[in-house]
Amino acid sequence: MTDPHELTRMLQKDNGSKIVLLVGDGLGGLPLEPGGKTELETANTPNLDALARRGTLGLSTPMLPGIAPGSGPGHLGLFGYDPIKYRIGRGVLEALGIDFELGPNDVAIRGNFCTLDAAGNITDRRAGRIPTEVGSKLSEKLNQIKVPGAEVFVRAGEGYRTVLIFRGEGLGGDVADTDPQKTGVPPLEPVARSAGSAKTAQVAAEFLKQARVVLKDDAPANFLTLRGIDTMPQIPRFEEVYGMKAGAIAVYPMYRGLARLVGMDILDAGHTLDDQLTRLEKSWNDYDFFFIHWKYTDSSGEDGNFALKVQRTEELDTAIPRIAKLNPDVIVVTGDHSTPSKMKSHSWHPVPVLLSAENCRFDGSTKFGETQCRHGGLGQFEAKHLMLLAMAHAGRLEKYGA
Amino acid sequence: MTDPHELTRMLQKDNGSKIVLLVGDGLGGLPLEPGGKTELETANTPNLDALARRGTLGLSTPMLPGIAPGSGPGHLGLFGYDPIKYRIGRGVLEALGIDFELGPNDVAIRGNFCTLDAAGNITDRRAGRIPTEVGSKLSEKLNQIKVPGAEVFVRAGEGYRTVLIFRGEGLGGDVADTDPQKTGVPPLEPVARSAGSAKTAQVAAEFLKQARVVLKDDAPANFLTLRGIDTMPQIPRFEEVYGMKAGAIAVYPMYRGLARLVGMDILDAGHTLDDQLTRLEKSWNDYDFFFIHWKYTDSSGEDGNFALKVQRTEELDTAIPRIAKLNPDVIVVTGDHSTPSKMKSHSWHPVPVLLSAENCRFDGSTKFGETQCRHGGLGQFEAKHLMLLAMAHAGRLEKYGA
């Protein structure tokens, strides 16, 4: 299989055009009944529909048919990175999710506070689900630990979760979880699965030794297990592979983190869609490519709230006029995956795509929704090829071969 | 990724059936306005439409979504060769384009006549755009040069362009261009980028040394630079991979060259479509597979002439009755890429495909055009798989496995 980046490196050209990628997280949905409409089809979206009439629709498959992606692989695909080739460890995703700026010498780890009995066996793998405030205080205590050979950062997560970063030279990410996945047994020792991670296992063992002392009086959270130990994946930079300077306007830390992972600049904004669009307008001249992330189509879907997802989609629709007024050469509106409120979860269903540009092969679309996307001019394609389509329509790709 | 040729080698069978591949170069197009028709949809094509009713339609992606191919990769794809795996260097394409029969010991090079000042610096990279007649005379002079270790052929190109072939044992194609891509500096020396091309660099250096003397009084064309130095790609022969004897009926040298590259016989014909069809009829019993190339749907598109592209498409339509009268088992009508007159260039848009054969899954098509192709029975597929479909419909592929 050809790596699209081989082609974009070879064929990219800078014609000064601008692309806006507007992501409604979990945009795709399902009708509640046979013959019914999806959330997107139910929503009143006059601006998206007008864009569809001037554009072309399609459906993207995030990875492979039947595979529902998490937010990480979903967004990597949209950014044109093969989500199977570039795997993001759980620890790294957690660190991105608390806005921690990971560097190349960092190992990121998800920690779970747990309860040990007097014999050192785990009695509760989630430490009685302590509240976030308690976990935060314990994380601050753990953050004081010093170990030889690495800097240690411990940051609070939600509830019993915490995030650890070891920073230092020669720290590999290939260390097994210490969570035994059951109670009545002691936590596992950190074991390196390859030679390059021996030092990480040593650092982790020393950290855990001290943590046992630091937390000894904090039952039910008197210890922690380590999971998803990983380094940053080696991901080529967006600007290098596409020749475009990219800015990300995302409210939630994880999406800022994913954008940062591929080398986008993070453009801070307030928490409303209006704030995000104001930031877009302000930064318009400084970037070639903008990624705008709208979370609430996903969270309403995850809550199983069909009517709220419809409403959140209608809010997304109101963003279009302000974006269109900036006159981008290409506007893409899509999702990173589907989140049908009927399923209350991410799903594998192909994701609606709307692409509007001067040289679209117009396909007679009149309404942005799953049904028309199925018959759209872009057909059904792998999400990782969306960037190729966006660049082509922006005139940013030379012809291949003579 | 599976190489389709692994399968065709294994499954091919000769049942005496015949396939005609009629290529309208750059056939795919765009409507000028939302809701409008493409060139192909605007054209009055009663014969193609009748064929569509008896056949099935689809859209092919020449390489990947968003990638616009040149004629070389576009045709390789139609012939079932992965255009990313088999790359054709610029020099090779130029040699094909002047009908030069390249052999396995040849290195092909594009030369550009240029102007040097007294200090040996380039003042004009295109030698004042000398007319073809002048370039031809200079190419004849250069063709007299003898160098040790290789035979040298120099052939005129258009204007300031020329084509060089070095023929000899042990000549690699991995030598850097000598065109510095700017003026005010001397041309670069030919430098081998890998050990296997050291001899080519030596031959090129000796050739250029003599060329400097030969051309010294021919300002503004008093020297030349070398570009796109390359050998023929190692391409398996059409007959070996498909078990079919193939004849190519193409007017333009480049397309004859591309057909020759994969091992088709070149069937000479006059310059009109009628001449081409007469040749087809005459050679009907001698081949299993015919490639007929029609250039003018592309050139009218490149000129941005929508009406002329419509007319050229209508001319192509008139070829169908004479082809159908020969009763081929499979007729395929398609393009090597799209050339929308709106864009005046090759584009990435998927290419209309019409396949007519006894065992088509008829899809209710009534008109050969992009809109019906989008809903056609062949779906949207990679161009390199078209040969598999043609062979299957011709009954030339055994079942895979038991």
What does this structure look like?
- The structure is a homodimer of 402-residue chains.
- By secondary structure, chain A is an alpha/beta fold.
- Chain A folds into two domains: 4-87 and 235-393, 3-Layer(aba) Sandwich (Alkaline Phosphatase, subunit A), CATH 3.40.720; 92-231, no CATH class.
- Chain A is 31% helix and 19% strand.
- The first copy, chain A, contains 15 helices and 13 strands.
- Chain A has helices at 4-11, 39-42, 46-53, 71-78, 90-97, 132-142, 198-214, 238-242, 253-261, 273-282, 296-302, 306-317, 320-325, 370-374, 386-393; strands spanning 19-24, 55-61, 106-116, 122-124, 151-156, 161-167, 223-231, 246-249, 265-266, 289-294, 330-334, 351-357, 379-382.
- In chain A, the strands form two sheets. Chain A has an eight-stranded mixed beta sheet with strand order 9-8-10-1-11-12-2-13, sandwiched between helices. In chain A, strands 3, 4, 5, 6 and 7 form a five-stranded antiparallel beta sheet that branches.
- In chain A, strand 5 (151-156) and strand 6 (161-167) form a beta hairpin.
- In chain A, helix 4 (71-78) crosses helix 9 and helix 11 (296-302) runs antiparallel to helix 12.
- The radius of gyration of chain A is 23 Å and the shape is globular.
- The relative contact order of chain A is 0.25.
- The model of chain A has no long low-confidence stretch (mean pLDDT 96).
- Chains A and B meet through helix 1, strand 13 and helix 15 of A and helix 4 and helix 14 of B.
Describe what is shown at a glance:
With 402 residues, chain A is of the alpha/beta class. Chain A has helices at residues 4-11, 39-42, 46-53, 71-78, 90-97, 132-142, 198-214, 238-242, 253-261, 273-282, 296-302, 306-317, 320-325, 370-374, 386-393, and strands at 19-24, 55-61, 106-116, 122-124, 151-156, 161-167, 223-231, 246-249, 265-266, 289-294, 330-334, 351-357, 379-382. Chain A folds into two domains: 4-87 and 235-393, Alkaline Phosphatase, subunit A; 92-231, no CATH class.
